[in-house]
Amino acid sequence: MVIFTKQTADLIKKLRNYSHGTTSFKSSGIYAIQETDMILMVIQKNEIFLLKKIILDSDTNAFISVQTTGFTSGNYIRRF
Hints:
Alpha-Beta Plaits, four-stranded antiparallel beta sheet, 24% helix
């Protein structure tokens, strides 16, 4: 899941209580030339609805993109 937001501090505070790791990057939009933050998470399909609610509660203008991942390697714990 990739999230673009300008309300990063509030969102990260909420995501710290969530069980998955999150990585945040400073970024800049090419079209609008505005500073924003990109948050990257690897999640399971059944978590999308809950995370979408958490994200949109922090920033109603957040851009959220979900991609299918065929392979993960490293420190990722899959919960069933």
